């Protein structure tokens, strides 16, 4: 495939690069094998020797890399944009757990929801996504439209999610939820041992899902997914940490997200959730933790040291967190940060909306910082607030 267009990307933090009138050559495996100004002699030779005419993107439009959504709950797409009036722990009981349990009980509905989710992701320019699934391990369901499943095969419900993303051409890192503690008695795994067995089984089968495909076509990978500390026993978390070490599987969860969640963990465990994750060996360079709004600079520095990334979800933070994420401090420290839509805690699946919200939150924080310094000077006191 040959494309002539203006290209826009950000190769490093704080740098926006615009490549005008460039030739892009994409090989049969989907890899970019040539990129340079279309006026160069080599580009002109490629165009002359090509057996196809290039696609020319008209002036005023441009191409950019697809967006990466670092935090999205696949089953919660079922009720996107509703039920955002409750504190986090109540919201989970009232909406999230019920929606996930409903999809676990209805694989036909699950396929329908996940297919629409894939369509919307593509429409909004998302080409890679880190997904939370549901907890159910096995069901019988014959998927007729999609491959590579065969009818009446037994598999984890979250494999429907993985299969839909693979078929849609979306690079997806998919997690079957692990949770052996729950305030919703019908939506919980039997024990830590059962949850660990299910997580390992899912990882094996998710990998096998694409094993027969050429390497460049394997778009889905499994992710170990303890929902968050309030729904996972220490035994389960430690077992997932061990499994990740042994098989080099990625990890995703939520951390330091909301006041009620933080207080719940302190009362139950005697420490904050970051300490629980650390002692379970779940803060690694394979880990993405969503939110982290209550982490101060030293805690963010610790994340940078262990290589753990943060999924910054400014839209859902506005609903469920009493604190904004300290984005500027995190970037200055060297913490890895990406954006997440956090559907359905966030009401929009569009990463562009997450970008806009991140800018708005940052401007509000900067205004608060300036006002704090001004007030401190007026009262003759040093500014002690670090936003």
UniProtKB/TrEMBL annotation:
GO terms of biological process kind: guanine metabolic process
Keyword line: Hydrolase, Metal-binding, Zinc
Matches recorded under InterPro entries: Amidohydro-rel, Metal-dep_hydrolase_composite, Metal_Hydrolase, Metallo-dep_hydrolases
Keyword Aminoacyl-tRNA synthetase tagged: no
Cofactor field: Zn(2+)
Domain of life: Eukaryota
MF term (GO), any: zinc ion binding
Pfam families xrefs: Amidohydro_1
Matching Gene3D superfamilies: Metal-dependent hydrolases, Urease, subunit C, domain 1
GO CC entries: cytosol
Domain Amidohydrolase-related: 62-363
Keyword hit for Zinc: yes
The protein's name: Guanine deaminase
Organism phylogeny: Eukaryota, Fungi, Dikarya, Basidiomycota, Agaricomycotina
């Amino acid at each position: 495939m040959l494309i002539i267009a203006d290209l826009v990307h950000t190769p490093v933090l704080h740098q926006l690069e615009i490549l005008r009138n460039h030739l892009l050559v994409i090989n049969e495996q989907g890899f970019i094998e040539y990129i340079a100004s279309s006026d160069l002699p080599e580009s002109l030779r490629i165009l002359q020797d090509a057996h196809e005419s290039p696609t020319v993107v008209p002036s005023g439009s441009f191409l950019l890399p697809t967006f990466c959504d670092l935090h999205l709950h696949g089953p919660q797409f079922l009720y996107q944009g509703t039920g955002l009036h409750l504190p986090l722990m109540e919201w989970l009981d009232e909406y999230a757990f019920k929606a996930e349990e409903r999809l676990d009980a209805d694989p036909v509905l699950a396929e329908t929801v996940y297919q629409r989710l894939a369509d919307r992701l593509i429409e909004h320019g998302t080409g890679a996504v880190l997904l939370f699934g549901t907890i159910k391990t096995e069901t019988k369901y014959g998927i007729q439209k999609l491959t590579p499943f065969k009818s009446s095969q037994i598999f984890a419900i979250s494999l429907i999610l993985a299969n839909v993303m693979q078929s849609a051409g979306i690079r997806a890192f998919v997690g079957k939820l692990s949770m052996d503690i729950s305030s919703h008695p019908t939506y919980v795994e039997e024990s830590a041992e059962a949850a660990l067995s299910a997580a390992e089984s899912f990882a094996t089968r998710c990998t096998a899902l694409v094993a027969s495909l050429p390497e460049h076509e394997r778009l889905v990978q499994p992710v170990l997914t303890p929902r968050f500390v309030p729904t996972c026993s220490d035994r389960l978390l430690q077992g997932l940490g061990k499994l990740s070490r042994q098989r080099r599987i990625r990890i995703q969860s939520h951390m330091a997200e909301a006041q009620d969640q933080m207080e719940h963990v302190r009362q139950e465990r005697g420490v904050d959730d970051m300490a629980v994750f650390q002692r379970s060996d779940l803060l690694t360079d394979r880990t993405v933790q969503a939110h982290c709004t209550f982490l101060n600079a030293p805690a963010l520095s610790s994340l940078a040291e262990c290589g753990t990334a943060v999924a910054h979800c400014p839209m859902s933070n506005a609903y469920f967190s009493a604190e904004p994420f300290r984005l500027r401090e995190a970037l200055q420290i060297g913490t890895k940060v990406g954006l997440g839509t956090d559907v359905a805690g966030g009401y929009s699946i569009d990463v562009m909306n997450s970008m806009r919200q991140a800018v708005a939150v940052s401007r509000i924080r900067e205004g608060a910082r300036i006002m704090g310094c001004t007030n401190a000077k007026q009262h003759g006191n040093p500014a002690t607030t670090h936003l």
